[in-house]
Automatic annotation (TrEMBL):
An MF annotation (GO) of this entry: amidase activity
Family (UniProt): Belongs to the glycosyl hydrolase 73 family.
Name of the molecule in the record: Mannosyl-glycoprotein endo-beta-N-acetylglucosamidase-like domain-containing protein
Species whose genome carries this gene: Weissella cibaria
Transmembrane region(s): none
Lineage: Bacteria, Bacillati, Bacillota, Bacilli, Lactobacillales
Pfam families linked: Glucosaminidase (PF01832)
Keywords: Hydrolase
Length: 311
């Protein structure tokens, strides 16, 4: 950007207005061109010469032409502009000096580029997720960045520009976890055999010291964020258990469209149970029965109005 501004006089030069050439790129080999006078610094002073400059059909072609020149160098040295490459220059100043004496003969060419960059804060444009020739890195202000950045619809964590995967990271006073693709996770997650909750509202941070809900279940998050079953039906190490307020529950609970009876958290089957001064029967699937049923050779009526108790 600074080169285009400097070489074209911010788009006012004859070369840019007549040939869409914003970088002063000379014609290489064949192709359309315009002949124009230019100044070169030779033996300690400037001289005026006429050169053949590349002629482009659009501004985009000019950008692409300059990019090819810097990337491919000259026919006799493809690394001619190596000093200006992002993979070699650690910042915009080094890149500017990598052009001096090569791209232009002016002894103050780098200083002029740097002055344009810093006057108009163009270094702030030198960022994003970029392949610098050695790999993909996140840059900001010409430097490899460390921290979270939003990219392609989600947040990623970068360290010295490199994306980090499968790791805990801290920022803004909170803890976060990035998965195998580097994305900050949300919702309920199992990490290292422990369960954690990272919210579902787009904030991504680990919840601690609070009760968190997931579907029909509630968990209690400790100070480290590790979740303990709090209320709901959980797949525990000893099997499925109904837990309320962190304790194994005894009694009826409505779940998945039916009433089930639990004793010390365990769902009961094929037996009479009592609650609220009434008797009920739970079948082989654990559901409270309704209607008339034959149990151990005897007939019982459990109603048909959604109350389930034995008449």
């Amino acid at each position: 950007m600074a080169q285009a501004a400097l070489e074209s006089g911010w788009g006012t030069s004859q070369l840019s207005t007549k040939a869409n050439n914003y970088f002063g790129v000379k014609r290489g080999g064949s192709g359309a061109y315009v002949a124009m006078p230019t100044q070169e610094y030779v033996n300690g002073h400037y001289i005026t010469v006429t050169e053949k400059f590349a002629k482009y059909n659009s501004v985009r072609e000019s950008l692409e032409g300059n990019a090819r020149l810097l990337a491919n160098g000259l026919s006799w040295n493809h690394n001619y502009y190596l000093g200006a490459w992002r993979s070699k220059a650690s910042n915009y100043k080094e890149a500017a000096y990598g052009l001096q004496g090569k791209y232009a003969t002016a002894p103050d060419y780098a200083a002029k580029l740097i002055r344009v960059i810093e006057t108009y804060h163009l270094q702030e444009m030198d960022g994003g997720y970029i392949n610098d020739g050695t790999g993909w890195f996140w840059y900001e202000n010409g430097q490899k960045f460390t921290g979270f950045r939003f990219y392609m619809g989600t947040y990623y964590w970068f360290e010295n520009g490199a994306r980090i995967n499968n790791a805990w990271r801290s920022a803004w006073g909170y803890r976060y976890y990035v998965d195998g693709e580097g994305r900050a996770v949300q919702g309920l997650r199992t990490i290292g055999g422990k369960r954690y909750h990272f919210g579902t509202d787009g904030t991504f941070y680990l919840r601690t010291n609070q009760t968190v809900a997931h579907n029909q279940e509630k968990y209690r998050a400790s100070s480290t964020g590790e979740l303990q079953p709090w209320s709901g039906y959980f797949d525990a190490p000893a099997g499925w258990r109904w837990i309320e307020n962190g304790q194994m529950y005894t009694g009826f609970r409505f779940y998945m469209g039916a009433y089930y009876y639990f004793r010390n958290g365990v769902r009961q089957h094929n037996q009479f149970v009592s609650q609220w001064g009434l008797h009920y029967y739970v079948g082989s699937d654990g559901r409270s029965m309704q209607g008339i049923h034959m149990i151990d050779g005897k007939r019982y009526n459990f109603g048909s109005n959604g109350t389930f108790y034995m008449r």
